[in-house]
Amino acid sequence: MAWLDRRYSPDNPVVHRQELLDFKFEGRRFPLIDNQLGIRKPAGLTAALSILTTYTSDGQRAPYEDALGSDGFLRYKYQGNPEHYTNRGLREAHTLRVPLIWFFGVQQGMYLPFYPVWIIADEPQHSQVAIGLDEAQVTLAQNAESLSPLERRYSERVSKQRLHQPVFRQRVIRAYNSSCAVCCLRHVSLLDAAHIVPDRDERGVPAVSNGLALCKIHHSAYDENILGVRPNLTVHVRSDILQEVDGPMLKHGLQEMDGVTLTLPKRRVDRPNREAIEQRYELFRAVG
């Protein structure tokens, strides 16, 4: 985890698979992930060291399916047979209350690490364990059966903010080749992953096809309905904004974007969902 701290940078928080396989500890090779399995339980350690969620494209499965329970805690499935040594390693991590690392796939062979995380419950009847992402969730889990609605909502918000949102951001920005879809700005620190259908809407799934990589000014303009995206994927700047007279940012940053065609991901599966674009554009038109 200290190595991951040193490895981290805001512009590039992901780690490559080969880095994790080639990791060395005290001068010897000590992989942080298993080459074949989702759970890494090294020989000589009682508990598991890490868990891994493989990257999958939109459409292959629902985003984060079965990941979030009704109590707001995330789940992780067993590796096959419940008595497999890796699953026993997860249970030992729970018993010993030791932290793990969760490597979540954001692109083929690239992972966003979350750490420390804890196994807060073992659920063999569902072949899974529950995961706590911070100490607050670990504390809540001690009384999981009697959580109030407020505590459940809090736990769900923590799970989304600490895992779903960072994963969504990385997947969207990487799909758009680290470039704003509107103005092509390529400064990663100034880019956001904007939802087309907001995540507060039940249809606002955390899928790349429900996202746009936008610089911060165009993200804010999109959220505030200053600009919209037509079903033909061209930008529509609100008419009253086009008539305003102000400085160069208004002129070059917003007014000149009217009619621009979005720059899209290379992979068709990553491109904006047509129904989501149409739904969001109708909202823009209603407000404008």
From TrEMBL:
Residues 180-227 form the HNH nuclease domain. Keywords: Endonuclease, Hydrolase, Nuclease. InterPro entries: HNH_nuc. It comes from the Bacteria. Pfam families: HNH_2. The keyword Hydrolase applies. This is HNH endonuclease. The lineage of its organism: Bacteria, Bacillati, Actinomycetota, Actinomycetes, Streptosporangiales.
